[in-house]
């Protein structure tokens, strides 16, 4: 049995504790926030034509990351500060957060409370206010997705209206009404009938890629901006699927974001399943237990992100850790490395490139030599360029082995990006 400490011993303990508290307070006050590769976000965005603009009238780029269960973790009482630090340090400026998930999504597997109807909590509005404010304090925007499964339309409409009533006082919130509403059988247009959006920038979540091309304009409604996903999620499509966002924003006249491309996972994750190889020498696509698909090949992600940054309003990195509302652990080095490489790609491609003119091989001013035997140059038979002033950026998604960039049409290579298939030319 432990002996009780004497008076002197107790006094010494009190003194030591006081000194430790003082040291902690002094060290905390001298700590700096994590270094960020891009300035923090401030002020409401606006939409004009096919672009987002910030309060300084500068075109704005979406550098997103999936964080589906981050609000669920916050409601669970977890410290989400480490996740926010990680997002800031990797250069993400907006996160995609689910406002609910259906039973079976996996929140319970992660030790989280039921998240089917968080709006039933008495403190829901208060917690949502605090969550949005926490992100704003760190210069992060959030795309909040209230609906992820079909429910009674009155329940869905009331839920969405409560979210808008909270979001109206936060500069950093955008709303995507429903996640993949076609697949999840949510009539988002009907839900939004009578809802007051209070000027909050919004997307329905309807994806033109899921509708017959000949009936697009009649079948797909848009709000302030649009979102498109990778509905194929295979090697042939995924490295270049983000060109869809460019096609749709040209057709519908609003900004489009590649908001859920193919997911990215590590080999050791319990959900990883081996189900084949890609043509780049053995990197595997993981079938995802519970639905969807994931890849372990960051070249697919880098290629898609580079195309999205060149041609559209932006890109969301769909990492498995983010699906779970967390950051990559030490056991997830592929996700960590891929996130860092996206930071470098975003640095190399300027945000204002969105104001440039898109070019493809065959255009007389295309800066890259392209023989026409495209399979020998790109394993997905594509290359994309954008010219802005006297400079042109070109990406060759998933280049063929041995490929190297060569200039054409009076251009010369100015710089090679963080990956060799992303090149800047000058004239």
SSE map:
Elements: H1 7-30, E1 46-48, E2 51-53, E3 59-60, E4 62-66, H2 70-75, H3 81-89, E5 94-98, H4 124-137, E6 141-145, H5 153-167, E7 173-176, H6 181-184, H7 188-191, E8 202-203, H8 216-219, E9 226-229, H9 243-252, E10 256-260, E11 263-264, E12 274-277, E13 284-287, E14 293-295, H10 298-311, E15 314-317, H11 320-323, H12 333-348, E16 357-359, E17 384-388, E18 391-395, E19 412-416, E20 422-426
Parallel strand pairs: 4-5, 4-15, 5-6, 6-7, 7-8, 9-10, 11-14
Antiparallel strand pairs: 1-2, 2-3, 12-13, 13-14, 16-17, 17-18, 18-20, 19-20
Structural write-up:
The protein is an alpha/beta fold. It folds into 2 domains: 46-352, Alpha-Beta Barrel (TIM Barrel); 357-426. The protein is built from 12 helices and 20 strands. The strands form 5 sheets. It has a 6-stranded parallel beta sheet with strand order 8-7-6-5-4-15. The protein has a 5-stranded antiparallel beta sheet with strand order 16-17-18-20-19, with helices on one face. Helix 4 (124-137) crosses helix 5 and helix 10 runs parallel beside helix 12 (333-348). It is globular, with a radius of gyration of 24 Å. The termini are far apart. Residues 1-33 have low confidence and may be disordered.
Helical proportion?
25-40%
Query: What gross morphology would you assign?
Result: globular
Classify the fold: give the CATH topology of the largest domain.
TIM Barrel
Question: Which CATH class of the largest domain applies here?
Answer: Alpha Beta
Count of DSSP strands: 20
Strand count, sense and barrel status of the largest sheet are: 6 strands, parallel
| Rg from Cα | 24 Å
User: What structural category do the secondary elements indicate?
Assistant: alpha/beta
Order of strands in the sheet with most strands = 8-7-6-5-4-15
The appropriate CATH architecture of the largest domain is Alpha-Beta Barrel
Low-confidence stretches: 1-33
Question: Number of domains in the coordinates?
Answer: 2
Query: How widely separated are the two ends?
Result: 83 Å
How many alpha or pi helices? 12
> What is the typical, i.e. mean, pLDDT?
87
Q: How much strand? A: 15-25%
CATH superfamily of the largest domain: Glycosidases
